[in-house]
């Protein structure tokens, strides 16, 4: 989002994504979609074709689009990279955050990449989410974590995930047609004390 691009929020996350991509994604498979500034990837047009979207676009080159309303039939298995940079934390409902992750897996090709950026307190100081639970949620919808970065006392956590090959039952899972473990579908307290209430539910 444009707010998250500010230096007071941690700066442009595309720098981390571009640092990680070489060696993980063939140059011919550089298409990405995410919520970014329109010129974030201009220097990399030789191998990246990106389509920036935002719920309320403030720039003519950013498509105004609700990620949760993207047509599944025409986009399933069509994307190589999806960047959800400071996006999940702006989705109001915990279950819609889970739906966004399921849709991301639906839209990605097998072995595609999902880049997630969250405010660090969403993972380190949440009553309902820690890194282990985030890993479980991602695995349940078909992702494995390949890279993670954060600084102790920092503002953000960066997570890069690989879309794993799905079985027939797994293909139903990321579409929400198969039951998930109960600890991933309802809020379960993981920490006590003064915490925030950020959660992701499937």
Percentage of β-strand residues: 15-25%
| Chain-averaged pLDDT | 79
Lateral arrangement of strands in the main beta sheet: 3-2-1-4-5-7-6
Summarize the main sheet: 7 strands, mixed
Number of strands: 7
- Give the N-terminus to C-terminus distance in angstroms: 23 Å
Encode the helix/strand succession as letters.
Answer: HEEEHEHEHHEEH
Q: What Rg do the Cα atoms give?
A: 16 Å
Helix content bin: 10-25%
The outline comes out as: globular
**So how many helices?**
6
Low-pLDDT stretches = 4-10, 28-44, 168-175
Based on secondary structure, the structural category is alpha/beta
Secondary structure topology:
Elements: H1 14-20, E1 32-34, E2 50-54, E3 63-64, H2 72-75, E4 79-85, H3 94-107, E5 108-119, H4 121-124, H5 131-140, E6 143-150, E7 156-163, H6 168-173
Parallel strand pairs: 1-2, 1-4, 2-3, 4-5
Antiparallel strand pairs: 5-7, 6-7
